[in-house]
Every structure is written in structure tokens, then in C-alpha cells.
Amino acid sequence: MAEEITIARPYAEAVFKLAKEKNALSSWSDMLNALTEATSIEQIRTLISDPGIPANKLAEIILEVCENKLDSEGRNLVNLLVENNRLDVLPQLSALYEQLKAQFEEILEANIISAYAISDSQLEKLVSVLENKFKCKIKAKVNIDPELIGGVKIVIGDEVIDSSVRGKLETMSVALKS
């Protein structure tokens, strides 16, 4: 896994640089998503792993599956990845690109895990508090986990804010065992 990320990083950085120069960050997100979806189709995965398929034929098939979702630079990326036998790193390339884009746009992704459903007003208030704390825009994704018992757990990057009942009980358990 780490090797694929290492391989994908220069491609993601090059795509990001190009997208930034052309002021096309969103369209590159769309193109990379379309490519990732296309290459995750089982039949396409089989073709990618088949060394008997000529590179130009494989590129042609992928471009056909993506139809008109790619511009000329997107098609060039497909040809480059096929030529270098790097189609397997498309999911990592796309994820790294999205991270670079989020950093550039100063947007952090927050995974909010709650024991119960959160209303829109509660989510807005929570996002506002997080934006003040982190001094940037927050894009929140909410998941429900009844095992938290109550409260919320927030994961932003490698930072975890755990104010769930379960988290507090675990902390108390550790303290009592010491």
C-alpha cells in the first residue's frame, strides 16, 4: 500500500500543478473520479492485469468507458498511466489529489461520528466551532455509531476529538487501572 502511494504521489502533484495553472481543480476532481470508477469495473480490472493486452488497446477501452468525461489532458493522463503500467495507482492518485486540493482551498475534512442522528442546526453549530478552532473551512461527513452511547467523536486528519460517553468511560477505566 505504501508503495502505491509513493508511486501515485508524483502523478498527483503533477496533476494538481496542472489543474492549478489551468484553474481547473474541480474538473480534474471529476475526471479523476471518472477514471477511478472506470478502472474499478471488474472487466476493466481483468484487462489491466492481463499482460497480453496492448497498451494502446487498453487506453482506448478506458477512454471509451469514460466517454466524454475527460478533456485532452485527462486523455493524456490515461495514456501516460497505461504506458507506464500505473493504472493500479489511480485510487491513490485521486485521493492524494483531493488532499492537495483541500489544502490549497484550506478545507479540512471532518468525520463526525455520533451516537444519534445530528440535526442540521446542530451540525452547523459544530462545524462553526471546528472552523474557529482550525481556522479554515470544514467539510463534515456524519456517521452514526450507537456504540458511542452518547456524544460525538470527531476525526480531522490525524487529530481525534473524543467527547463520547464511550471514550470517557474508556479513559476512566484506564485511570482506575493505574
Automatic annotation (TrEMBL):
Pfam family, one: OSCP
Function noted in UniProt: F(1)F(0) ATP synthase produces ATP from ADP in the presence of a proton or sodium gradient. F-type ATPases consist of two structural domains, F(1) containing the extramembraneous catalytic core and F(0) containing the membrane proton channel, linked together by a central stalk and a peripheral stalk. During catalysis, ATP synthesis in the catalytic domain of F(1) is coupled via a rotary mechanism of the central stalk subunits to proton translocation. This protein is part of the stalk that links CF(0) to CF(1). It either transmits conformational changes from CF(0) to CF(1) or is implicated in proton conduction.
CC annotations in GO: plasma membrane; proton-transporting ATP synthase complex
Cited PANTHER family: ATP SYNTHASE DELTA CHAIN
Membrane topology label: Peripheral membrane protein
Subcellular location field: Cell membrane; Membrane
Species lineage: Bacteria, Pseudomonadati, Pseudomonadota, Betaproteobacteria, Nitrosomonadales
The species this protein was found in: Nitrosomonas communis
Main location, first listed in the record: membrane
Protein name: ATP synthase subunit delta
Keyword Lyase among UniProt keywords: no
Membrane-spanning parts: none
